[in-house]
Design brief:
69% helix, mainly alpha
Length: 90
């Protein structure tokens, strides 16, 4: 899903919403791109990857997961509502 979206805007939105640096945002993006975020059984694997690669606890990993899902689903909803509009992440 993320590959069809503007990756730069997604990473910038992650940085803004999670108050993190570029490196962490790229790590999060890479984890999301390597997994299907919308399959329920992948949630645990994604959260585990967040915990391992970012050295964070489960609460922070859950927050990152939920924030990422919100950003992606809002972008998809906006694209469906306004298919010719180019701004996806606001």
């Amino acid at each position: 899903m993320v590959k069809k979206m503007n990756k730069t805007k997604f990473i910038q939105t992650l940085k803004k919403n999670l108050n993190i640096d570029e490196t962490k945002a790229n790590i999060i993006n890479n984890i999301i791109e390597s997994n299907n975020i919308f399959i329920k059984k992948n949630k645990e694997k994604i959260i585990k990857d967040f915990m391992e690669q970012l050295s964070i606890n489960i609460e922070e990993a859950n927050n990152i997961y939920e924030t990422s899902i919100d950003i992606i689903t809002n972008a998809i909803k906006n694209k469906i509502k306004h298919p010719f509009k180019t701004k996806n992440f606001d």
